[in-house]
Design brief:
The chain is built from four helices and twelve strands. It has 256 residues and is α/β, with parallel strands linked by helices. The chain folds into two domains: 1-165, Rossmann fold (3-Layer(aba) Sandwich), CATH 3.40.50; 167-253, Lipoxygenase-1, CATH 2.60.60. The chain has a five-stranded mixed β-sheet. Strands 7, 8, 9 and 11 form a four-stranded antiparallel β-sheet that branches. Residues 167-256 form the PLAT domain. It is a peripheral membrane protein.
Length: 256
Amino acid sequence: LSGLDPAQPYFQGTPIEVRLDKSDAEFVDVIHTDSAPTIPYLGFGISPAIGHLDFYPNGGKQMPGCGKNPVSQIIDLDGIWEGTRDFVACNHLRSYKYYSDSIIYPDGFLGYSCASYDVFETERCFPCPQEGCPNMGHFADKFKGKIKNDFLKLYLNTGEAKDFALWRYKVTVTLSGKSKVKGYVNIALYGSGGNTRQHRIVKGTLQPDNTYTSFIDAEVNIGTVTKVKFLWNNNRLNPTFPKLGAATVTVQSGEN
């Protein structure tokens, strides 16, 4: 049984006979996309974990792409009716859009077990444990039988628009050069499954021999890494033309 952002008003905090609960089926997975409090934030979705697996994409409250201005949202690619619904209940409706995308991407939407979304943004919940990470959506039941905890809260990020699936990588860069400079470092990953756009790893003071770590939520499953493109930008005019390089770049896939 898959709960697509089960309702919060009149259901949250009620007995299990009234609302969705993991006792309702052998396996219950839930996608929370609009779990901010109804008052004052108009959150339509329930926030507590109520299934065997509870997924909180992007933290479960505010979905990327839902903050667009109303006019652009109403005159949507999918038509005015779809756009108007998205304007009224965009976060809430993301749950079924993620679910339908998950059918197309059986290896996508990996949920990382974590105490909270803030902790997910650190290195503490990466990579997947030995038994792997469950996939949010249609293929969540592949994880049935691997659940040890009463409730498993899972976090991940999604894209702003279709296609929503992203694949998480940890990138660690050690810089080389003669002197510290100001600027930013971008990385693009190339692999057997495709390549990513440039992702920013660090911005500010760049110190040679220092190591910088960042997460990339890539729009493609790159497969086996074949090449990494490193680019740094000195964002102010510097007559000394400082040089900076990457001594090492380490890429770790969250999945394996």
